[in-house]
Amino acid sequence: MDLTTLISPEEATDRLRHYEAQRTEERTAEDDAIRAGYRAAARGLPVISLPEAIHAGGYFTDSGLPKIAIARANTEMCWLRSDTRRDECRWEYCDEQSPRARADVGRHRVVVRTPGPGPGSYNRPWWVRTIVPSIPPEHRPRQSRLWRFHVLWEVEQWTLVAPVDPALLRHIRGDLWAVVATWDLTPLEQAVLTARAGGR
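RESULT FIELD:
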């Protein structure tokens, strides 16, 4: 999975100085989001735009569903609901079917909007699901903090089959996310996850 970063650590460090020097009473919500993004990048974390990452990952030609999924790190299953409009697709990634959530990035879901209806959008299922990859011990946050993180991965198919190359993310603000770690699942890890979910 290729994740295009938005800014280098050096450039972020330089630009962050200007936002840190700004008076608190003059800061807007956008200023705060930009400053938070620069801060993460200056610490050496790759910063990505989630809609761009999902759109760049592509779509399955038979269903039009995205090949990239995201879910909260403390859940085992990812449900995807789609809603196609004339100029955008709205992807609702949830840890349960029909969650009661309002925020785009909430405790039980992440809503991502990508441009255009996408290929095969007329044939898209309403609800599909797949397995959320496990996080290896060397990258896993403490259990008490795990809910603050998300896992992003390339979906093999929207079935109960484990993926290969996940990334651990931390939400910054809006569409901005910091990549905390990346890893590959071994065939053994994939087999255990697939069996846990009752997949083939």
